[in-house]
């Protein structure tokens, strides 16, 4: 997987997750504004079962699926970045991406990779030695 593919997948996942978060925030806001939640002080004690509540539930599920899809795209892009940096001569990028991903800082690792990371496909091509002519 090339660096441009990893970058597109990562940014697409970020956009999908952000869009899902916006949808969920909007549906909860509409639910509060229209009295879907029955409140007891600051606690939600019940949900009025109206058509609006079920419609908002559908939008909330769509938003959650968008966030899940964005997270899966982020994971796949991280794996692609790992496979891509494995082909580089120096293993510093690979180890950095791996450790940051394992310790739950994969987002920051991917931001660094997108901005300044090497492309392992070009490194693999340049490593090949030219064939020698027969003597």
Question: How would you describe the overall organization of this protein?
Answer:
The chain has one domain (3-119). 71% of the residues lie in helices and 7% in strands. It contains five helices and two strands, in the order αββαααα. It has a two-stranded antiparallel ribbon with strand order 1-2. Helix 2 (51-86) runs antiparallel to helix 3 and helix 3 (92-102) packs antiparallel against helix 4. It is elongated.
Keywords:
135 residues; mainly alpha; two-stranded antiparallel ribbon; 5 helices; 2 strands; 71% helix
Structural class: mainly alpha
Number of helices: 5
Report the principal-axis shape.
Answer: elongated
**First-last Cα distance:** 39 Å
Supply Rg.
23 Å
Low-confidence stretches: none
Mean pLDDT comes to 90
Care to count the β-strands?
A: 2
Task: Return the string of H and E elements.
Answer: HEEHHHH
Strand order of the largest sheet: 1-2
Largest sheet, strands/sense/barrel: 2 strands, antiparallel
Helical content (DSSP H or I, runs of 4+): over 70%
Q: Into which percentage range does the β-strand content fall?
A: 5-15%
The number of domains is 1
Q: Which helices and strands appear, and what pairs or packs with what?
A:
Elements: H1 3-33, E1 37-40, E2 43-47, H2 51-86, H3 92-102, H4 106-116, H5 120-126
Antiparallel strand pairs: 1-2
What's this entry about, in short?
The chain has 135 residues and is mainly alpha-helical. The chain has one domain.
């Amino acid at each position: 997987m090339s660096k441009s593919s990893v970058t597109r997948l990562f940014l697409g996942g970020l956009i999908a997750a952000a869009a899902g978060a916006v949808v969920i925030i909007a549906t909860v806001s509409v639910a509060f504004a229209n009295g879907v939640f029955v409140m007891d002080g600051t606690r939600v004690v019940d949900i009025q079962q109206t058509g609006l509540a079920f419609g908002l539930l559908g939008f909330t599920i769509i938003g959650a699926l968008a966030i899940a899809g964005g997270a899966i795209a982020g994971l796949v892009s991280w794996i692609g970045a790992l496979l891509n940096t494995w082909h580089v001569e120096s293993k510093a990028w690979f180890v950095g991406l791996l450790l940051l991903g394992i310790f739950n800082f994969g987002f920051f690792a991917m931001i660094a990779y997108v901005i300044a990371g090497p492309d392992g496909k070009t490194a693999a091509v340049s490593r090949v030695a030219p064939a020698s002519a027969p003597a």
